[in-house]
Design goal:
Number of helices: 8
Strand order of the largest sheet: 2-10-13-12-11-14
Strand content: 25-35%
Radius of gyration: 33 Å
């Protein structure tokens, strides 16, 4: 009886020790770690850039319905037709239907003309079908019904191409004849345009204006001072203005900054400017003018640029960064940095063992550091290494259980 009691006590102690160890292991962590990831950072001067460029107002004195042949943000040649003018909305709708039918006929004709079925990538065609279907469903589920027709056409085109290549449907002649008949009927019912709107210069067309077209010009860049920027206000435009042409030649970014920041630059310096634009995330610019304010406490630095896109053509102001330096490497917390035997490095977990690896820090702040990503077979910090950012009594070869 006494023996059974002792056995029970021992079992209870073992169980308590086991669960106590499990609880301790789950709560107490001898080290805190994070993963080393690739990171790119730009260090520079944050500015609000104001766009200055040559812009030509597009005017029209003919009343009617405008059917635009040039989309917003599209490039147009000097003398090119921007829009036709019709008496009523019905003619414009007919013209839109003609455009849609012409595009469908071209797409189907291109499909029939492409007869190299063996060279087609079936997986790519299937991906296009899935992508078009996703766009259609996503647009409708988000209430963007205006894009439904275009997305439906893309889906139908993708399905037709896959069917043609896989041999499911190889005869589109009847459908082509039907589309051509519809096109002929629409063309015969379309009245002649009563007028046209043409481009007075080459560049990017925009149907919207902001009132700065005649104020922010490239005529006298020395006049773009802090005082000028403070008084800057849009002007009302004539009622016959229907858009503008944005020149795609050299244009400028004006940025007001402190006098100390302006002293970092001199005329002729070539620098980069980071933007939030998808088409132009980095602009290559040159410092062409530094205008000191009357009080000598601020300046406007004017940068010149010759890159242009539809996004830039529609932009007037925006947050930008004048790049001083770019950093790229492996990012870890600043607290991971250690000095061992006069060498700077970090501890990484290799299995259950700590390993000290030297690092070359190329950038750091109070929160994190960027280490050079070294291409070497020796001990070095690697992408996705598990790095110790907090722990006590760390040393090379220590087992972390």
């Amino acid at each position: 009886m006494k023996t059974n009691t002792i056995v029970r006590i021992i079992l209870v102690v073992v169980v308590l020790v086991f669960f106590g160890h499990q609880f301790y292991s789950s709560v107490y962590k001898p080290v805190t770690t994070e993963t080393a990831v690739y990171y790119e950072m730009i260090d520079g001067l944050n500015i609000t850039g104001t766009i200055i460029r040559n812009e030509y107002l597009v005017t029209c004195d003919t009343n009617g319905v405008y059917h635009y042949l040039t989309e917003d943000g599209s490039r147009v040649a000097s003398g090119g037709v921007i829009a036709n003018i019709y008496d009523n909305e019905a003619a414009s709708i007919t013209m839109s239907n003609i455009d849609d039918l012409t595009e469908k006929i071209k797409d189907m004709s291109d499909l029939v003309a492409y007869n190299n079925q063996q060279a087609a990538d079936i997986d790519l065609l299937s991906n296009r079908v899935n992508s078009a279907l996703d766009s259609l469903v996503f647009g409708c589920s988000n209430g963007n019904y205006s894009s439904a027709a275009a997305n439906s056409d893309k889906l139908l085109s993708a399905i037709n191409r896959r069917q043609y290549i896989t041999g499911e449907n190889t005869d589109f002649s009847a459908r082509l004849a039907e589309l051509n008949a519809q096109l002929g009927k629409l063309n015969s019912s379309l009245p002649a345009a009563k007028g046209k709107i043409t481009a007075t210069a080459s560049g990017y067309f925009s149907s919207s204006t902001d009132g700065y077209e005649t104020i922010l010009t490239t005529n006298d860049l020395t006049a773009i001072t802090a005082e000028f920027m403070k008084k800057l206000a849009p002007q009302s435009l004539p009622a016959n203005v229907v858009g503008k042409i944005v020149s795609d030649y050299e244009w400028y970014i004006a940025a007001k900054m402190t006098i100390n920041d302006s002293m970092k630059y001199k005329v002729g310096d070539k620098v980069s400017v980071k933007t939030a634009l998808k088409t132009n995330p980095i602009l290559d610019v040159s410092v062409c003018q530094i205008n000191i304010s009357d009080a000598s406490d601020s300046a406007v630095v004017v940068f010149s640029c010759n890159q242009m896109s539809s996004e830039l053509a529609s932009m007037r102001t925006g947050a930008m960064t004048v790049v001083n330096k770019k950093y790229s490497g492996l990012k870890v917390a600043k607290s991971a940095l250690r000095v061992v035997n006069s060498k700077t490095g970090v501890y990484v977990l290799s299995g259950i063992t700590l390993k000290f690896v030297p690092v070359n820090v190329i950038y750091s702040n109070d929160e994190f550091m960027i280490c050079e990503q070294q291409q070497t077979t020796e001990k070095a910090l690697r992408l996705y290494d598990t790095v110790v950012i907090k722990g006590k009594n760390l040393y090379d070869g220590k087992v972390i259980g």
